């Protein structure tokens, strides 16, 4: 069996992330899902510390034996490039790696560091995301090699769509609106305790 890898800022992690991970693990018959919070993502500005984001993921998945967390990117002082992370992860496991990407991020793939090598060396799963139909993949057809396109296309996985985003949750926190049910209760308590996302 292979392991699944789900990277991201998780700013914060929410129920949509957890449903996605569970559905992909079952549908792809993966032994486990490893969550990897990014430390310095190349395409985003992050308002809170990597340690807070790591802690929230850790408590969100604590009761699921098929979910793990890795601090492999938090240990690095460099920008969190997925390809480099996968190379490090390969040195730590004998299992095949399946990298999970949401359909909302697929169009930015050609901007990623050594993305062609990433697709060559790892199995890639594209998970459905709200407002990002798989038909968007057609926009990549003329930008990437045909073999690469086919590899992406054969691993399109439909999951229950949860119209929740980390951006929405941050906005609710800033506006002092409730986020109960948007995130696990343990994460909600953590956000409240440390007064996260209250600034603009």
Task: Please give a quick description of this structure.
This protein has 200 residues and is an alpha/beta fold. It has helices at residues 15-27, 50-60, 82-90, 115-121, 146-153, 166-174, 185-194, and strands at residues 3-8, 32-37, 67-69, 97-102, 123-127, 156-157. A 6-stranded parallel beta sheet has the order 3-2-1-4-5-6, with helices on both faces.
Write up what this structure looks like.
The chain is α/β, with parallel strands linked by helices and 200 residues long. The chain has one domain (3-162): Rossmann fold. It is 34% helix and 14% strand. The chain contains seven helices and six strands, in the order E-H-E-H-E-H-E-H-E-H-E-H-H. It has helices at residues 15-27, 50-60, 82-90, 115-121, 146-153, 166-174, 185-194; strands at residues 3-8, 32-37, 67-69, 97-102, 123-127, 156-157. The chain has a six-stranded parallel sheet, sandwiched between helices. Helix 4 links the parallel strand 4 (97-102) and strand 5 (123-127). Helix 2 runs antiparallel to helix 7. The longest helix has 13 residues, at 15-27. The mean pLDDT is 92.
Layout of strands and helices, then pairs:
Blueprint: E1 3-8, H1 15-27, E2 32-37, H2 50-60, E3 67-69, H3 82-90, E4 97-102, H4 115-121, E5 123-127, H5 146-153, E6 156-157, H6 166-174, H7 185-194
Parallel strand pairs: 1-2, 1-4, 2-3, 4-5, 5-6
Helix pairs in contact: 2-7
The neighbouring-strand order within the major sheet is 3-2-1-4-5-6
Distance between the termini: 44 Å
Helix-strand category:
alpha/beta
Largest sheet: 6 strands, parallel
Spell out the CATH superfamily: HUPs
As residue ranges, the low-confidence spans are none
- Any idea how many domains? 1
- Rg over CA atoms, rounded to whole Å, is 17 Å
| Annotation field: number of helices | 7
CATH C-level class is Alpha Beta
Shape-level CATH architecture: 3-Layer(aba) Sandwich
Gross morphology: globular
- As a percent range, the share of strand residues is 5-15%
Q: What is the averaged pLDDT score?
A: 92
The counted number of beta strands is 6
CATH topology: Rossmann fold
């Amino acid at each position: 069996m292979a392991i699944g890898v789900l990277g991201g800022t998780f700013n914060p992690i929410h129920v949509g992330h957890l449903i996605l991970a569970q559905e992909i693990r079952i549908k792809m018959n993966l032994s486990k899902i490893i969550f990897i919070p990014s430390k310095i993502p190349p395409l985003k500005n992050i308002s809170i510390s990597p340690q807070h984001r790591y802690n929230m993921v850790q408590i969100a998945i604590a009761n699921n034996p098929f979910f793990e967390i890795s601090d492999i990117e938090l240990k690095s002082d460099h920008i969190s490039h997925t390809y480099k992370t996968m190379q490090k992860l390969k040195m730590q496991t004998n299992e095949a790696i399946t990298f999970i990407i949401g359909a909302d991020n697929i169009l930015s793939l050609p901007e990623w560091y050594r993305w062609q090598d990433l697709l060559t060396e790892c199995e890639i799963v594209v998970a459905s995301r709200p407002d990002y139909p798989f038909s968007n993949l057609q926009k990549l057809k003329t930008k990437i090699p045909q073999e690469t396109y086919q590899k992406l296309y054969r691993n399109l996985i439909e999951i229950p769509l949860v119209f929740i985003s980390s951006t929405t949750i941050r906005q609710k926190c800033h506006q002092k609106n409730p986020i109960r049910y948007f995130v696990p209760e343990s994460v909600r308590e953590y956000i409240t305790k440390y007064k996260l996302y209250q600034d603009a």
